[in-house]
Structure formats: C-alpha cells, structure tokens
Amino acid sequence: MTDNKNDLIEYLLRLADNAMINGQRLCEWCGHAPALEEEMALMNVALDLVGQARNWYEYAAELLADGRDADRLAFTRDERDFRNTLLVEQPNGDYAVTTAKLFLFDAWHLHTLQALTASKDERIAAIAAKGVKEATYHLRRSGEWVERLGDGTEESRQRMLAAIDELWRFTGDLLAGDAIQQRLAEAGIAADAAAVAAAWQATVEQVFGATNLPVPQPSSYFYLDGKKGLHTEHLGILLAEMQFLQRAYPGATW
Amino acid sequence: MSEWILFEVFVRSKHGLNHKHVGSVHAADANMALESARDLYTRRNEGVSIWVVPSAQITATAGDEKEPFFDPSQDKVYRHASFYELPDEVGHM
User: Where are the beta strands (DSSP E) in chain A?
Assistant: First the structure.
C-alpha cells in the first residue's frame, strides 16, 4: 500500500505539474496576444488549467501529509522535483508554436482525462470528469487553429510546419509511460499510456490530415525525461518567475 | 489578421426565450467567431446558446431613414390596445 501511495502521489504531481506549467506558459501571452479575442481565449484556457492543477495538487498534498499545501507544492518545489512533460515547458515562440504546443498537449490531455473518468480512485474520477469538459473545448479550439494556420496563407502554413518540426521531438516524452503509471493503470487507477498514445495518434492524424500537414514518424528516444525531473533549460527560468514571490516572501498573502 | 471579419454575437440566456444581441467579435471564420464569442460573452455563465452572424450580412436601417421609417407610427394611437374603450360588461380582460 505504501508503494501504491507513493506511486499515486507521483502520478498526481505529473497531472498537476502538466496543467500548472502549461497554464503558466500561456499566461505569458497576457497583454501580448495578436487580438483581444485570442487573449481572452488563451487566458480562459490558462485559468482552466491552473484550476485543474489546484485540484490535483490538493489531492497530492493530502496524501503527502507533510504540511505542504497546494500552493507550497506549486511555488516551493525545485526544478528537479517537477514532473511535467517537456512539451509544456517549451517557450511560446510565435503563434504557430503556441498553437501546435497546445494542440499536441490538448489531444493527450483529453484522452488522458477521458480514461481517468473511469478510474477506480473516485477522487481522480471526479476531478477528471470536471476537467474533461474543459479539455474538450481546449482541443476543439487548438485543433481548429492548427487547421486555420495549416491552410491559411503560405506563410502561416510554413510556420505551422516549422512549429511541428520543432516540437515533435518532445512528443515521445509526452506519450511514454513508465513503471509507476503501468502499476497504477493495472490497478485501474491511472490511464494506460499505450491506449492514450494510440488515441492521441488518431486525433493528430485526423487534424493534421484535414489540411495535409504531414504527421512525422514517432519521436525517438530523447535524453531528458520530464517524469524523472530531467527538464530542458526552459523550466528553471519559468519557475524563477512563477515562484519568485513565494521564494522571496515565504507565506506572503494579499 | 487583415482578413478577419466582424461578426455580431447573439446569446440566449438560461431563462431567456430568444437570442439577444450582446456585442461583436473579429474572427477569420464562423467557428472561430463562435469560440471567441463563448470566451468573451459567456464567461460568467450567461448563455446556453450562441449565434454569430457576419456583420456584413445584416441589412440595417440607416440613421437618415429614421424619420420616414419610424415617425409615422408615432401618431397611430389606434394601434395600441389601450386606445379602445372596453364596455363595462367585459370586465377585466
């Protein structure tokens, strides 16, 4: 049971960190989006994700029972303790990069949450059920934007192709399972990584196919692994900004 | 973005029977307009249905047509039910 509990905490932190880091990245568009409408949309998505992160962190904090709450988990852990996938920590780049990043994540996220609604852990199932509605909308939105840029102008298509090319190497990390997830999946608690990967592939092929964007070969081995806390250089910089206040003024509230 | 067009947004609220005009959004296509409208105008649980219509597709009365369009109805008091006197026998309708 202790092993199971440690596995569960680890898995919850992955879900939480994925939502948190993706949300934090998106917030960088605040005040910079190409149009007011897009700014509102991006901030809506970002806040959905931060809300989901809070739910996962709170559950993890209860299981950890070491005095840390959701805020402490988000704002005082070091880079090596973060369990998010490498994809979500990547810089926003241009709008094609942001769009491709969101789409690749949203497809994984929705299929993961859909699987988790059937989790034997009722708390997980309940959080996932709420998140599925939000993620369904996120995927609809980002998928349409992929198509919009994919068959917009010659430049928008070139940018989307470049964005896919730049981000694709991180999809291996996004889709890979490990022993922890495997054990939890066999216990009916976590999503099965292979099943999510297959559903993700089908979604990507459908959306890319709509505008004849080529689907690259599956991403091969990458030397970093977000689940193990081995991140690209971008996460530390993101955390430095995100965690500054709680690091400089521990426990500050306003 | 120069190719984005203006859409008018109509939202039906939870207890409302009809869609009401709430504002407008710029978008590249109708789906994008629907999503922007959702994010801009139904953030606080306002709606259960959204229509978007390209603004250019709306035919509207012009400002200088106000008099011929609307003034003639000002003195047609007989178009209001209150113009007619009800016989006492009818009682409250």
Answer: none
In a domain, B85, yes or no: no
CB A151 within 8 A of CB A211: yes
Q: pLDDT tens digit string along A120-175?
A: 999 999 999 999 999 999 999 999 999 999 999 999 999 999 999 999 999 999 99
Q: How many domains does chain B have?
A: 1
Count Cβ–Cβ pairs < 8 Å, chain A vs chain B. Answer: 30
- C-alpha distance from A43 to closest chain B C-alpha (Å): 9
Domains contained in chain A, CATH given = 2-248 (1.20.1260.10)
For residue B7, the cross-strand partners are B25, B54
Chain A residues with CB-CB distance to B1 below 8 A = 34-35
Contacts of B32 in chain A (CB under 8 A): 144, 148
Cross-chain CB nearest to A35 (options B26, B29, B38)? B26
Q: Is residue B80 part of a domain?
A: no
Reported ipTM: the value is 0.74
CB-based contact, A51 to chain B, within 8 Å: no
Cα–Cα nearest to A10, from A178, A165, A144: A178
Assigned domain for B50 exists: yes
For the stretch A98-125, pLDDT in tens is 999 999 999 999 999 999 999 999 999 9
What is the value of pTM for the model shown? 0.89
What does the block give as tokens for A168? 């694709």
